[in-house]
Automatic annotation (TrEMBL), chain A:
<dbReference type="InterPro" id="IPR003439">
    <property type="entry name" value="ABC_transporter-like_ATP-bd"/>
</dbReference>
<dbReference type="InterPro" id="IPR013563">
    <property type="entry name" value="Oligopep_ABC_C"/>
</dbReference>
<dbReference type="GO" id="GO:0015833">
    <property type="term" value="P:peptide transport"/>
</dbReference>
<keyword id="KW-0067">ATP-binding</keyword>
<keyword id="KW-0472">Membrane</keyword>
<dbReference type="GO" id="GO:0016887">
    <property type="term" value="F:ATP hydrolysis activity"/>
</dbReference>
<dbReference type="Pfam" id="PF08352">
    <property type="entry name" value="oligo_HPY"/>
</dbReference>
<keyword id="KW-1003">Cell membrane</keyword>
<feature type="domain" description="ABC transporter">
    <location>
        <begin position="17"/>
        <end position="267"/>
    </location>
</feature>
TrEMBL record, chain B:
<dbReference type="InterPro" id="IPR045621">
    <property type="entry name" value="BPD_transp_1_N"/>
</dbReference>
<keyword id="KW-0812">Transmembrane</keyword>
<feature type="transmembrane region" description="Helical">
    <location>
        <begin position="239"/>
        <end position="264"/>
    </location>
</feature>
<dbReference type="Pfam" id="PF00528">
    <property type="entry name" value="BPD_transp_1"/>
</dbReference>
<dbReference type="GO" id="GO:0005886">
    <property type="term" value="C:plasma membrane"/>
</dbReference>
<keyword id="KW-0813">Transport</keyword>
<dbReference type="InterPro" id="IPR035906">
    <property type="entry name" value="MetI-like_sf"/>
</dbReference>
<feature type="transmembrane region" description="Helical">
    <location>
        <begin position="12"/>
        <end position="30"/>
    </location>
</feature>
<feature type="domain" description="ABC transmembrane type-1">
    <location>
        <begin position="97"/>
        <end position="303"/>
    </location>
</feature>
Length: 357, 321
């Protein structure tokens, strides 16, 4: 497939994105909401990172913090965000505007509400091309047509002149991808890109995203609550809980050897194809922590099945396994003697386990 | 196409119903219902004149026939005869209509000119000092009735600052543009201020809502500069209530200007209608209300069409029906 715009040749040394102790806090009447509370990670060029967590874990806020897309009022940003070896964590919207759509682009969750209903598809795709690359109208629209081809929308010439309501949900998400791809960004954020779509379309969209990423040597951050989504489409996975990173590993390593009980619980909440039908899914009891007054110690402890006293008082640091790329924050990780002991105790009193047969 | 036809039929039905109703009720409401010609002519007049008038306007036939003749006259711009003014209605109606139309169009134009940018900027700077201050101001000006605003502004601009002449007689822009502007400035201001205040509040509320939409965030995330996000993406998605309100205002032009016309002694349609009703001036009432109904219905038609112009979804839905 020929792409419209190849990413410009850049300094390919060093990671594309480097976060150090990123914090995003919101001032509210109830107090300071620590939505993202000290996240550090790096992302290499052309790689895909999945950020996984339930609602309120801070995954969406983290991605928007990196892009600088949050409202300035009442938001406190701390820590360092380095993109292309340049600090962008302290840039305002005015400066970020030249990065948005050009270097970094974002795909939103709901394609039904994310396109301007009163503007032709073509104009919406052409807009960033005209702004960032200074194309004239004709060139921009011609480019838009080829972008529609790239995202496998047939009859592009006709589609350009249509309005969003004339397109299906899957089509609209493809248009969103075309818009994001338009200026050849090096970094793409996809925030729950398939949640609002039909199951049959989800896989197509994820495959499309993956192909585009590889074709364009673009890095991807895929934000989702669904481990199933990230499994086949990422190189690395970061699991977030209560605004913190609780486990991070190369995708294969994570699925082979997850350490954090929260990751395990997320895993068990996905239905498995070889389970007998009507098997009850394991749900994680309780609710995500209050980010104004997060629990002392491990934030997951109040909901964890294997909690011990230490978990409730001391916060576990991120430590590496034998594999230095696999880090987790847990005192008694999956596989540890204490974990097995707790698990054995739990199976004697099956009522406390979520699974009821 | 079917939609337009449907709307046009509606327009005709409403127009006929209302104008016919006005005619019937005016005659029923007369002091001497049986003798419209005498009431219309008023005072002591010769039987001869009454007979001529009755014959001329078919006042002795039934309502439907009378209506038919009146309608025929309207089509040839012959609006009938007005005794108190001792004139053909058509002749003296023209300056009245023009005065009201000037008042209405100017005030709507200037109110929009002020309201749109203020509301857009307010929504952009939501909850910042500018927004809060102007929100208070608009609330204040909505609450001030015209009967208070008119003397106040008259005092400030005409008596105290003496910027404008003390209400000269009617001047058309094509005769003396400067004097025309001076003449209309204060009355238009009285009408503009509450209108602008209302529209600012209306548009600000819709803009604030639109600015929270995903597609606005997407537009920003594409790198679209804030001014284009506001004017190119958000405004068009926020104008529906405003368009509706402007339509109402255009339609109700005459009633709204009544106080201003009376206070500034401007001879417009509003004051004309009041006097005409009080003096049983049949053809004047009928003609003025016919103009009003036509205005209201036409403007509504225009509002409907502009919805379709703004929103492709409405356009397509109508094309299908």
């Amino acid at each position: 497939m020929t792409n419209v715009i190849q990413a410009a040749n850049r300094d390919v040394n060093g990671p594309l994105l480097e976060l150090t102790d990123v914090k995003t806090h919101f001032r509210t009447r109830r107090g300071l909401v620590r939505a993202v509370d000290g996240v550090s990670l790096t992302l290499e060029r052309g790689k895909a990172l999945g950020i996984v967590g339930e609602s309120g874990s801070g995954k969406t806020i983290l991605s928007r913090s990196i892009m600088g897309l949050l409202p300035t009022k009442g938001t406190e940003r701390h820590g360092s965000i380095r993109f292309e070896q340049q600090e962008i964590g302290n840039l305002g919207r005015k400066q970020m505007r030249h990065i948005w759509g050009k270097e970094m682009a974002m795909i939103f969750q709901d394609p039904m509400t994310s396109l301007n209903p009163l503007m032709k598809i073509g104009k919406q795709i052409a807009e960033p091309l005209r702004i960032h690359l200074g194309m004239d109208k004709a060139t921009a629209w011609a480019t838009a047509e080829r972008l529609l081809q790239d995202v496998r929308i047939p009859e592009g010439a006709r589609r350009l002149h249509q309005y969003p309501h004339e397109l299906s949900g899957g089509m609209r998400q493809r248009v969103m991808i075309a818009i994001a791809m338009a200026c050849g960004p090096t970094m793409l954020f996809a925030d729950e890109p398939t949640t609002a779509l039909d199951v049959t379309v989800q896989a197509q969209i994820l495959d499309l995203l993956n192909d585009q990423r590889k074709d364009r040597n673009m890095s991807l951050i895929l934000v989702t609550h669904d481990l199933g989504v990230v499994a086949g489409h990422t190189d690395e996975i970061a699991v977030m809980y209560g605004g913190k990173l609780v486990e991070k590993a190369p995708t294969r390593a994570l699925f082979a050897d997850m350490k954090m009980p929260y990751t395990e619980a997320l895993m068990q909440s996905i239905p498995k194809i070889d389970d007998p039908s009507h098997t009850r899914l394991m749900a994680i009891g309780g609710r995500p922590p209050d980010l104004v007054n997060p629990p002392q110690g491990c934030r997951f402890a109040p909901r964890c099945l294997y909690t011990r006293d230490k978990c409730l008082t001391e916060e576990p640091p991120l430590v590496a396994t034998d594999n230095p790329e696999h880090t987790y924050a847990c005192w008694y990780p999956v596989g540890s003697p204490e974990y097995h002991e707790s698990k054995a105790r739990l199976s004697e009193t099956p009522v406390t386990i979520g699974r009821l047969d | 196409m079917r939609y337009a036809l449907q709307r046009f039929t509606q327009f005709l039905i409403v127009f006929f119903l209302v104008t016919f109703g006005v005619m019937v009720f005016m005659r029923i409401g007369l002091n001497k219902p049986g003798d419209p010609a005498r009431t219309m002519l008023g005072g002591t007049v010769s039987q001869d004149l009454i007979d001529t008038t009755t014959r001329r306007f078919h006042l002795d036939s039934n309502y439907l026939v009378q209506y038919w003749y009146w309608l025929k006259g309207m089509l040839t711009l012959d609006f009938g005869y007005s005794n108190p003014n001792n004139l053909n209605v058509t002749t003296y109606l023209k300056p009245r209509v023009l005065t009201t139309v000037f008042l209405g169009l100017y005030s709507i134009f200037f109110a929009l000119l002020v309201a749109v940018p203020v509301a857009v900027y307010q929504a952009y700077k939501r909850d910042r000092p500018f927004d809060k201050l102007s929100s208070f101001a608009t609330f204040f000006f909505i609450s001030v009735p015209a009967v208070v605003l008119a003397p106040l502004l008259k005092y400030i601009f005409i008596d105290w600052l003496a910027w404008f002449p003390r209400l000269s007689s009617k001047v058309y822009p094509w005769d003396n543009p400067m004097l025309h502007i001076k003449n209309f400035f204060v009355p238009v201001l009285v009408l503009t201020i509450p209108l602008a205040a209302t529209w600012i509040r209306l548009l600000r509320a819709d803009m604030v809502q639109t600015l929270q939409s995903d597609f606005i965030t997407l537009a920003s995330a594409k790198g679209v500069p804030p001014s284009r996000v506001l004017w190119g993406h958000a405004l068009r998605n926020s104008v529906f209530s405003l368009v509706t309100s402007v339509g109402f205002q255009l339609g109700g032009l005459v009633g709204g200007a009544l106080i201003v016309e009376a206070y500034f002694n401007m001879k417009g349609m509003g004051s004309l209608l009041v006097v005409a009703i009080l003096s049983s001036d049949l053809f004047t009432v009928q003609s003025v209300s016919a103009i009003l109904v036509a205005c209201v219905v036409l403007v509504n038609l225009g509002v409907d069409l502009s919805y379709a112009l703004i929103d492709p979804r409405i356009r397509h839905a109508r094309a299908l029906s």
